[in-house]
Structure formats: structure tokens, C-alpha cells
Design brief:
Blueprint (H helix, E strand, L loop, with lengths): L8 H20 L1 H17 L6 H24 L1 H6 L7 H4 L4 H20 L5 H20 L7 H4 L1 H13 L7 H24 L1 H7 L4 H4 L2 H24 L6 H19 L8 H27 L2
Helix pairs in contact: 2-3, 2-9, 2-15, 3-6, 3-7, 6-7, 7-9, 9-10, 10-11, 10-13, 10-15, 14-15
Length: 303
Amino acid sequence: MPIPTIQNPTLLFSEQVLSRLQSLRQLGRLELSTMVVLSALAGYLFAGGLWQIQILLLTAGVGFLATGCSALNQWQEQDLDLRMERTKQRPLPTGQLSPAVALLLASLSIGCGSLLLAALPGSMPLLLGMLAVIWYNAIYTPLKRHTPFAAIPGAICGALPPLIGWTAAGGVLISQKSLILAGTLFVWQIPHTWLLLCRYRDDLQRSGLPNIFKTIPTQRLLKINNCWLTSLFLCYLLFPLFGFIQSQALIYLFIAGLFIIILSILRKPADMQKTGSILQTFHLTNISMALLLTILILDRLFI
């Protein structure tokens, strides 16, 4: 007769806690939300903001908004996530979290983020934060069901967090520096999204969403995407060109980093439709943006 296995209650509890934390990480898309927070912080420091309590309010506020928007997006698209290989392991399709709990967490997160941004000087950070939520969840997310080119207007979402940081530091909303920073984030969003679509183009077919590959073949879309990548790297060069990076050492480091990334992209296989090549370019594109934001943040430390 087999001896029943007795599980350690402490170990079982730890596994349950880790499972819940993993579900929350997926619901809030922690990696992407971190990039959003970095862009807001870079915008704050780029505007000459000081290292003081406002930074904590800004980063926590934007972080809560970003994770809340992600949770709300997954609640809105749970039917689509269930059909796609890339997303079917998310908390809602797997049943790890119920839709009601996800909606509650999204509401609490957006509410906390709004309160924190409201505590910042002036009303513009909060207004831009609310615009980001509305644009992402009420405009971009439904628009994906109606047009295959939703990524272009949706890229505005990526341009708003640095403006939240910029205005939190007291910067004028419309200025040369703010528009260059926000514009660079806007341009980055397009190849970021289209490369992901190309990598998981079979998922797009299964999802039932408007299929961009029926309008533009994959090879042609990748060539168009290369034009966006070229524009993105030209935008990067505006920062040292206009003297937006003060430290000479960081300028050299930034240009060297961009050079290595460009070489790595150019060394991809001749067959641009290979998924490994597309995924590599996707990651390198994200690394290039992380490099810019890190350089801008570090540059403020040396002033």
C-alpha cells in the first residue's frame, strides 16, 4: 500500500505566494511598466528636475498607472489572449485570476497612480496621466479590433510618460527638448510593436484581429519597419547633436552603444522573416531605448 505524501505546509504556502506574485507580475507586465517608469523619470530629469520627494511620487504614480493600464487591457482582451500562444498563459486565460479580481486590481492601481500624480505640483502631470489611460484603454485597445494599423495612433501612449515627468519638473509642455524626447518614444513604439507582430504573426491569424499581413506582406512590412528603425536611430543622434547630454564620457558611451546595436541588427540573417532574427531585432530595439533613458538619467547625476 503506497504511503501518502505529506506536503510541507510552509513550502506549499511559499509556492502559492510565489504563484500569486508571478500572476501579478504578468498582469502588470512588470518589464514594460518598468520601461514606462524609466521614460517618465528621464523626462523629469531631462527637464532639470531635482532629486527630491517628487521623484518618488512620479515614479510610483506612473508605475501604478502603467500596471493598472496593463491589467485593464488584459481584462478587455481576455478573449483574444485565450486564442494566442504568446498570451494564453496570462493570469486570466489560465484562470489564476478571475476577471473581477483583475478589474478590481486595475481600478485600484489606476486610482493610486492618479492620487500620487495629483500630489505633484501643477495639474498637468495628472491630466497627462489620465490622457494616457484613456488613450491606451479607451482608444488604442478597441481600435485594434477595427484596423491593422492601430499601432500608429497607439504609439502616442508611449510618448506621454516622458511628458508626465517633464511637466512634473515644471517644464513647459511644448518645447524643443520635450518634443524631441516624446517624439523619440513615439517613433520607438512602431518598430517595437510591428516586430512583435512579425514574430508572432501566426498568433495574429488565430486572434481574429484585423491582419496587417493581408494588406502588407511580411517581407515588405519588415522593410518599412527598417525605415522606422532608421528614423529612430536618427532621433537618438539628436540628443548629443543638440547638446542634450552634458557629460562627454556619456556621449561617447551612448554613441558606442548605438554603434554596437546597429552592427548587431545589420548582422542578422539574410532571410529577414526568420523568427530568431526578428526576435533579436526586437530585443535590440528595446535595448536601444533603455540605453537612451539610462544615459539621460545618469547624465543628471554628473551635473
